């Protein structure tokens, strides 16, 4: 389901009231305060990818608060992630404060009070998803709320780049309803959180889940290597190949199938990207570790029910 709202055309005296109502209904019940008493510019657009809500909010300076009172009105028990696209935001929760500049992101929990303040005209990408989608113990996530994750380095940089690209393609018909994309985005976020958490004292089941998230991140960072193998992955994480296969089997897949699936998804994203229309299909395949054009064509058809060239043409028709 897609959603769009703008305060343009609304009488100035009612603009902020409309905005406060929109963010409370779209996300969770909130109270909001404008920085000035004059008219308020606000635009909210987004869609639901399965159980993951993805929204871009652009607005004049204001502050939103999640209070005990608003929590009592409705508590869906979800996490929210805010990635700053423009301007600066200040997030406070659980005694911590994070200042987010463009490219930075932070996670927060709607079951507890928080404040998000925008001191200037700003644009933010917001993800909202059930807490159980993260393969991490809730207690460890609670220790990372209102913590700044930099968009310019490490795993968090990969997350940031992915989210910025998602924001740019939010209106693309090929993104609409992409449950795989939503799952992958949340998995990447889990990887960034896992890198910050201490797992020495967590139960074995949670520790395995965190390890799998890290392994998936490693795979993501090495998809361009056609020689990437289970042995390489196991060695990089100081585990046996047998244990690696067990982790993926418990997740309902195999190591090879997961690598192939992610490579094909990356190829699909490039094929659908207007900025990459001049790249040949062979070049795109090689970029993601699939240099054999005939294999790429067969695998892509098995995965998507059409050839790479057909997929590219369909994307061009949708954009037109």
From TrEMBL:
The record's annotation in InterPro entries points to: AraC-bd_2, AraC_XylS_family_regulators, Homeodomain-like_sf, HTH_AraC
Please give the Gene3D superfamilies that the UniProt record associates with this protein. Answer: Homeodomain-like
Superkingdom to which the source organism belongs? Bacteria
Coiled-coil residues: none
Q: Where is the HTH araC/xylS-type domain?
A: 213-314
**What Pfam families has UniProt attached to this entry?**
AraC_binding_2, HTH_18
What's in the keyword line of the UniProt record?
DNA-binding, Transcription, Transcription regulation
Kindly list the GO molecular function terms attached to this UniProt entry: DNA-binding transcription factor activity; sequence-specific DNA binding
Name the chain's protein: AraC family transcriptional regulator
Q: Which organism is this protein's natural source?
A: Actinokineospora fastidiosa
